[in-house]
Structures
1.
Amino acid sequence: MSALRRAIRPTKPARTAEAASHWRLYFFRGSLFLVGLVIVGRLYVLQVVGREKWIAMAEEQHTVAQALRAEWGSIALRDGDLAYPVAVNREYKLAYVIPKLVEDVAGTAVALSAVLGVDESLVRERLSDRADPFEVIKKKITPEEEAKLKELKLKGVNFLPEVYRYYPAGELASKVIGFVGPSDLGEIGIYGVEAGWNGELHGRDGTLSQERDAAGRWISLTDREHVEPEDGDSLVLTIDRVIQYEVEKILAESREKFNADSGSAVVLEPKTGKILAMASVPQFNPNEYGKTEDIGLFMNPIISLPYESGSVMKPITMAIGIEEGKVSPHTEFVDTGVVNEAGYNIQNAEGKVYGRSTMTKVLEESINTGVMYVERLVGHGAFRDRLRSFGFGAKTGIRLPAEHPGNLKNLDNLKSTIQFLTASFGQGITVTSLQLAMAYGALANGGVLMKPQIVDRVIDRDGEVRPIEPEEVRRVVSQETSKAMGEMLRSVVVNGHGKRADVPGYLVGGKTGTAQVAKSGSKGYDENITIGSFVGYAPINDPRFVIVVKFDNPKDVQWAESSAAPAFGSIMRFLLSYAKVPTTEPIKK
Amino acid sequence: MRVYSERTTIINTKASRAKRFEAHAGAAHVAVIALLALSLFSAGLYVYAVNRSAVQGYAIRTLEKDLKELKKANAELRVREAEAKSLSRVEEGSNELRMEKVDALTIVNVRTNEIASR
């Protein structure tokens, strides 16, 4: 080995030191590698394996979603060419306090109590918890109350705007309009048009979803989801506000006069099916529906409470008989005062006997045996089918909630003759006032049944107007039958029990009905309770209005000719002058 | 035979190189100044545009707020109008004025343009 090599070759102790140094280096590198591996592994677990979980947690913490409330559409009644609002959205202020900001608790409580009319002890109680960030003092404060509180400049007292549904006309048409109330799904329409047309009126709420920072502030530069709310459509009803008001007034006066439990009336335009008034008393105020004790008041009896209509069904039976070609207005029969069937004696009212009578006289005197005679000629099956053709036993399709189809079940068995005989004068089957109005409307409209219409036009959020066109259902009787029925109904008013429904100067036709009411809990009818109705239309030569008036249990009169008939006459008189219909008959002075 | 051709002779002396450098440096100097000026102008234009947009945006926002308030006020006035026009109030007023209810109404159809003749 050369000297040089010897010089540079490390000595044994040097070689040992070098090896040790290398070992430490390897160890250090190995440790670093292991640490790195652990870190990478942990990153893998967090970012790959647990990715979805952490993203969800972060979104939950940082993303805030807020519902953007759509504005409800309004409801209006027809007011000439204009529209009168009866259901609108109104902003009210809510007064609240932040207790920790209130300096003078006693003074603030006294001032709030004096201005808002809230119990002072209640206000003190709400101000007592100093850590409480928010306490409501009173909702729906008036602008005057808000102004007074602002003048006082009370520390910690603030106001929050809230939107409520408001009914400026109060009780007017309340059962038709319904009201908006709370539910699990938020505010929804309850009863009436508010419920029946809830989808159109409510619109669609939007959402705003955005990230926020640790302090809860919106982070404007991040992604956000924004769905615009779609405001609801507005509705203009077919109901005329003046006619509705007047009909409600006449009903209320008559109900009080006859001491009836309740009363109702529906006014219809026979050529279009448009409902001009739908009134029932007693009523409720939709602005204070929570204070109404009897929730039965929310129901609209004209569509929801069917009843055994009694003699107002007789013209329908007669129309069926004429249409089937079995009888004519001058067909005669001999009345013996009673019909015996299945062991039952079915008599005329007050046990009267009329002898030889025409079909016209059957309606004038409301002879039970006369319509039973017609029904037998028609036959049970044909009679039942014709009743259904007139719309009885089925919903009219008016698109209001809780409509009842009535009940023709007693006519399911064609062998049960007594059911058919009693049905011919309106007992044993139930119908609603609206069904009666539409059936008489068909007689007035040349024999064509129309679909009832409660909404005249829809105005969408962009202001576009969509009118709703009248809809024919079917022809139920011929033009000739319709004309004949008009003359017979006129004869009832002139010569029969409908005199008090007449309006001087016009051809008014109609029929009274004093129906018995079934006993609850047992068979038979209650002798002390009746339902008095009058259904008719005018002018007979060119019908403009069909009216059904009904009083439940009028106590001071016995027959409908003394209760429902005069109320009908008052309403018809008003309608004919309101619509400026020229007289066609001489007015006897 | 020697052929002579015209050829530009570039004399590459130190002095000429210095002169060329000076010329180039001057041109670059002008370009830089021009670029700077353009940049400053663009920046100023940008600031002006942004500021104008912000001001207009603020104005639009203010107008939108005013419009919202006006719509609210209009809606409230419509409600008060409906309350004032309620038929029960009209009836109360007619009673106070001692107006008579008309029972029999006679409608006169005027067929010509004449409403009165001598």
Note: The mean pLDDT of chain A is 90.
2.
Amino acid sequence: MGDRLPALLKDSALTALMAAALGLFIVGFQTRDIGQGLFFDYQFVDLGIAVVTIFFGRLGLHLAAMGLKWPSFALGTVLGAVGASPLKMPSTFLHWFVVIAGVLIILRTIWPWANAALAKARHSERGRAMGQRGAKWFGAILLIAAVLLPFTPFADQKNMDLAVLILTYVMLGWGLNIVVGLAGLLDLGYVAFYAVGAYSYALLSTQFGLNFWTVLPLAGMFAATFGLLLGFPVLRLRGDYLAIVTMGFGEIIRLVLLNWVDLSNGPAGIGGIPGPTLFGAVFAETAPPGQQTFAQMMNIPFSSNQRLIYLYYIILLLALVTNFFTQRIRRLPVGRAWEALREDETACKALGINPTNTKLTAFAVGAMFAGFAGSFFAAKQRFISPESFTFIESAIILSIVVLGGMGSQIGVVLAAVLLIGLPEWFRDLGAYRMIVFGLAMVLIMVFRPRGLIAHREPSVRLHPVRAGP
Amino acid sequence: MLEVRGVATFYGAIQALHGVDLDVAKGEIVTLIGANGAGKSTLLMTVCGNPRARSGTIKLDGQDITHLPTHQIVRRGVAQVPEGRRIFPRMTVFENLQMGATLGDPAHFQHDLDRVLEMFPRLAERRDQRGGTLSGGEQQMLAIGRALMSRPRLLLLDEPSLGLAPLIVRQIFEAIRRIAREEGVTIFLVEQNAFHALRLADRGYVLVNGRVRLSGTGRELLANQEVRAAYLEGGHA
């Protein structure tokens, strides 16, 4: 290694130099308007720390790639420790930056080991059995944790809000998983059905005074109808072409909502949407005449958290229904036909499966769950406008499905926590949080190119897997 | 059982079949041989309605099926083992067989499954394995087994010997013989492996450039000078 050290140092120095050159104007100077014109803030300390980190980071990655475990491990640990130390640095982000550099080096160092160990475990009988049991238990533990969450100390307003948001995306992810993961139809306009569900509830509740539980099935039906409407013209399309048309459909729905002011109140949106009730009790401080509040019904003092917890359980229930439905339907002929259609459409026809009906049911069922989620969204927000149903929503839902591993139910949960939770938790990082978000996505794509959980669980297992000795 | 009259099929502007006449009687094994690009697979696919015949008629048990969509033709008791096998790679062997039984009566499922697994014991060993991880020969067995799960009256096979080792080819052909003789399934077999196909078949057709050039019993065609020269030189697998 001694003879290669100069080359390594040279390369690392070159990388650092390049970072310095690039960063000089981006990081080094910051313009500030102080009233009498623009002034420069100099941030050369930030730049210096970043460049030094990059130098050692590059060096560490090289060492790790050469298989020099201990030097690179030590370097990673030192970087991590420096980042985490109370050392005075100009910004919190720099602390994070240095820590992440250290963590990346350590990960790169142990990756080959971990990979080999994992591969070995995966191929042994015992490892496989443990993996399967683990997956089963993991789901159960996750479920119990989700049910108990509102009673834990974490259940403050902020966390509950986030949990409701994540669960909404889990449900949307599970719904889209039927279309994309099972039936293999790449749908980029899924948000359209979400919008249909949301506007169904918003209009029916504000105009006709229907309550949430009455509208919920109706919203699902409306959305499913739109699913069929979209399904018909795109039956012959596949892959990229299908994706483009569905994307267009999503935009059409949004534009209609934006411009059909008589129906949707256009960009101003619909406000004053009533929240969901529980056996006729409302979740508010004071009830409208003729109704009672939840607090009155239960004879407990009012707290604004009650509403949030109730919303949380509704979306948890809806999401679980989606999941249960998907798990069941995979074992039925129509679910199997979806999966077979994803695998090979020609072979499906040769087996007497009607591809038209199969695709339409997939679109309709997927849309139905988006409709449920949409009316929940409207009931939660109490105000909706076309703003909430832009293409980026479809893209996020699709990312959740793809990064989770197409067709994997638990993968969707992990990806939703990662993609929705991460940007929220890292709010402290300010503008940099999107970089962390991007980094997380890139890392998933590099290390798990087929999604977090790429394994497809057979719908039936004939020989029970033997437990380890 | 199957009656093909004057069928012409086009791919866009290119004519692949020029008025083909062909018959398959109940209980027969009929083979269609020919060189690459002669239109063998096209004829088999045309019988299945994909692509559709532009002119001519195809009748199944006296009923015109020329213009029916594929899945409806299949519902009338025609099963197809497509070229290149086309099993579902991410689904297990068992799930593949389940897919084959989509049209069948669920009450028959276990019986049909046992029958297929008895015919191809290798599939029984690999029931929980993903289709894509099987060897070529096993995939072919799976494709045939999957087609049998719908209890077809007419089985269409497109080059079942493609890319398989001679020993496996012999096993596959033996299975086809059993399906015809023991199960009474009528078989229409498209093959490049003329020697095996003609030895197995009751009758055969030779397709050249989209036209039927010769027809006769398997034995006659095997003895025919033209067939020998074109398809059998060195072809004694």
Note: The first strand of chain A starts at residue 29 and ends at 33.
